[in-house]
C-alpha cells in the first residue's frame, strides 16, 4: 500500500502543464509572430562566394613592366602566357640544378623559387 502511494504521489508530481499535441506546440498561436520577428535579410542556403582575384598587385610597376605589356599586346595574351610559362619552367630548372650542385635541400630550393617569383613581381616581369 505504501509503495502504491509513493508511486501515485510521484506520478502526480511529474504531470506537466503541456496540453495538446506536438502540432499545436510547434505551430501554435506564437508561430506567425515568431516568423515576422525573423529579419528578412537572413539568407537560407549556401553562402555566395565571389570569384578569386588573381591580379598582380604590382601590375604596371617595375622597370620591365612596360616592355612586358607591349610584348603581350603585340604577340597576344595566349601566346604570351605560353612563353611566360616556358620561361618560368626553365628558370625553375636552373634553380633546381643550382641547388643540386651546392647540396641544398628541397626546402631551400622552394625558398629560392619563391624569392625568384617575388623579385620577378618587383621588377615587372609578371605585369
UniProtKB/TrEMBL annotation:
Per the record, the domain of life is Eukaryota
Q: What is this protein called?
A: Proton gradient regulation 5
Q: Which GO terms describe its cellular component?
A: chloroplast
Q: Cross-referenced InterPro entries, in alphabetical order?
A: PGR5
Q: Name one GO biological process term.
A: response to high light intensity
| Name of the encoding gene | PGR5
Organism per entry = Erodium texanum (Texas stork's bill)
Molecular function GO labels:
electron transfer activity
Amino acid at each position: 500500500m505504501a509503495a502504491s502511494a509513493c508511486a501515485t504521489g510521484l506520478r502526480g508530481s511529474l504531470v506537466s502543464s503541456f496540453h495538446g499535441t506536438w502540432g499545436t506546440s510547434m505551430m501554435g498561436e506564437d508561430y506567425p509572430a515568431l516568423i515576422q520577428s525573423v529579419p528578412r535579410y537572413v539568407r537560407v542556403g549556401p553562402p555566395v562566394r565571389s570569384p578569386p582575384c588573381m591580379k598582380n598587385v604590382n601590375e604596371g610597376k617595375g622597370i620591365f613592366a612596360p616592355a612586358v605589356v607591349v610584348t603581350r599586346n603585340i604577340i597576344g595574351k595566349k601566346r604570351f602566357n605560353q612563353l611566360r610559362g616556358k620561361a618560368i619552367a626553365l628558370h625553375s630548372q636552373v634553380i633546381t640544378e643550382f641547388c643540386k650542385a651546392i647540396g641544398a635541400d628541397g626546402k631551400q630550393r622552394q625558398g629560392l623559387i619563391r624569392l625568384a617569383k617575388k623579385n620577378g613581381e618587383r621588377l615587372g616581369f609578371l605585369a
